[in-house]
Design a protein that fits this description.
Elements lengths: L15 E2 L4 E6 L2 E6 L1 H7 L2 E6 L5 E2 L4 E7 L3 E5 L4 E6 L2 H4 L3 H4 L8 E5 L2 H6 L4 H11 L1
Antiparallel strand pairs: 1-2, 2-3, 3-9, 4-6, 5-8, 6-7, 8-9
């Protein structure tokens, strides 16, 4: 855990993080992606999540969706290059799941990476991300 916004921001070991506050978890030959606890706290009550469709090919750092709340909207960026293979459609009816469980049920999409090793080298581990978040507050 690290210091974050007004509440302690949860940072999970074993995940990879972007400076735009997305997380990536390698699961077999896929990467599961979502937004971090820090991001969902900053947005407050999330009211809408939209991610590009399965089959969409993305480059690392490319915009792939949108998260909206009563307070603001924020683009979602892909931490790795590849093809989206699954979108968490339950977020259409229950976008607040991202607030409740950003690292679990609030995941946004799964991507089949095309350049995983190189992409992961450009991301932060939990310790680096915790330091990055602490420098923001």
């Amino acid at each position: 855990m690290s210091k974050g916004t007004s509440k302690a921001t949860k940072v999970i070991d074993g995940l990879y993080y972007t400076k735009e506050h997305e997380w990536a978890r390698v699961e077999g030959d896929l990467v599961v992606v979502g937004i971090t606890d820090y991001a969902q706290h900053a947005l407050h009550e999330i009211t809408f999540v939209e991610i590009m469709q399965s089959g969409t090919t993305l480059n690392a750092g490319e915009e792939c969706g949108l998260v909206e709340s009563m307070k603001a909207s924020s683009d979602v960026f892909s931490p790795v290059s590849g093809q989206i293979v699954e979108v968490n459609t339950s977020l259409e009816d229950s976008p607040e799941t991202v607030n409740e469980d950003p690292y679990g049920k609030g995941w946004m999409y799964k991507i089949r990476p095309s350049n995983l090793k190189a992409d992961l080298k450009k991301l932060m581990d939990s310790k680096a991300y915790a330091s990055f978040v602490a420098s923001k507050t």
